[in-house]
Design goal:
This protein is an alpha/beta fold. It contains eleven helices and ten strands. Helix 4 links the parallel strand 4 and strand 5. Helix 4 runs parallel beside helix 5 and helix 5 runs parallel beside helix 6. It is an enzyme of class 2 (transferase). Its EC number is 2.8.1.8.
Length: 325
């Protein structure tokens, strides 16, 4: 099977951090359709990326969330680093990241280690995300800002994309700390339609998340804003189209839509597998609504092909500005 294609449900990542969450053969899981296939996580590039992450004591959302694209991305040296620990204070029912009370304070040396890893990987574009840290007064906003500044100092030519929490329990002013550090892309995922928030994101609020992204654009229009949702959770097509309209009203530039894959039987129940044809229809509709960039496929994830997408995003903005002049 080395180098071949295997179903997502049979993918076992090396060095699982949460073996109690790993899939077991006796767990009843829906059969994956033929279009959801991933390459086994092997290869020289994969092992080199993994070693850099371990040497710098860094956590990646690729492993923690069991991303199906980890083999492809890590072979290219692309890893999405997850700052502020590996335990999240929220309990979203779609997510495979460990939840509870974080055992440690924020590590003041982590921004520097992230910057070192980015430099060693030679990344042109990096994505940095985090767990939710509701136990920290500013939700980790200053930690994000420090990480952005450290990467800029060490790798000035690298473009930076951040995927942040909602900072819902913080003073609204903390968002300024992140925006003033000038990431190239500010991403915060809405994850699903508002009607499913009580079940899927019980600690979040749909319109708060929308407003967060709108405020980023108001503070600094040069920063690209980005958000994503999963489908297959029980939403309707009409609800997805309404989310698109809400995002455009908040001036969000880039939309991602991917298939929800239920991590374990304890997580939110998978409603259905959305077909590639339906994803193509969503992409067409989103482009018609004015998004600069849309990625909508079964295996789309927030940071999947993020560097290539960012280059296309900049080109799309330039074309839009030229057309408006």
């Amino acid at each position: 099977m080395i180098g071949g294609e295997i179903p997502v449900r049979d993918l076992k990542l090396p060095d699982q951090r949460h073996p109690e969450k790993a899939h077991r053969p006796d767990n009843a899981q829906p059969k994956k359709p033929k279009w959801i296939r991933v390459k086994a996580p092997v290869g020289k590039g994969y092992m080199e990326t993994r070693k850099i992450m371990r040497d710098h004591k860094l956590v990646t959302v690729c492993e923690e969330a069991g991303c199906p694209n980890v083999g492809e991305c890590w072979n290219q040296g692309h890893a999405t680093m997850m700052i502020m620990g590996e335990v999240c204070t929220r309990a979203c029912t779609f997510c495979n990241i460990a939840t509870g009370k974080p055992p440690e304070d924020l590590d003041p040396f982590e921004p520097g280690r992230v910057a070192d890893a980015v430099q060693k990987l030679g990344l042109n574009h990096v994505v940095v995300t985090s767990v939710d840290r509701d136990d920290v007064k500013d939700g980790g906003a200053e930690h994000f800002a420090q990480t952005i500044r450290a990467i800029r100092h060490r790798s000035p030519g690298t473009t930076i994309e951040i995927l942040t929490p909602d900072f819902i329990n913080c003073d609204p002013a903390v968002l300024e700390l992140v925006v003033e550090a000038k990431p190239d892309v500010f991403n915060h995922n809405l994850e699903t339609v508002p009607g499913l928030y009580p079940e899927v994101r019980p600690g979040a609020r749909y319109f708060h998340s929308l407003r967060l992204l709108q405020r980023v654009k108001e503070m600094d229009p040069s920063i690209f804003t980005k958000s994503g949702i999963m489908v297959g959770l029980g939403e309707t097509r009409q609800q997805v189209h309404q989310v698109m309209d809400d995002m455009r009203a908040a001036q969000i530039d880039f939309l991602t839509i991917g298939q929800y894959l239920q991590p374990t039987p304890k997580h939110h129940t998978l409603d259905r597998f959305v077909t590639p044809e339906e994803f193509a229809a969503y992409e067409k509709a989103a482009k018609g609504k004015g998004f600069l960039m849309v990625s909508a496929t079964p295996l789309t994830r927030s940071s999947y092909h993020a560097g290539d997408d960012f280059a296309r995003l900049r080109e799309a903005r330039e074309r839009a500005l030229a057309a408006a002049s």
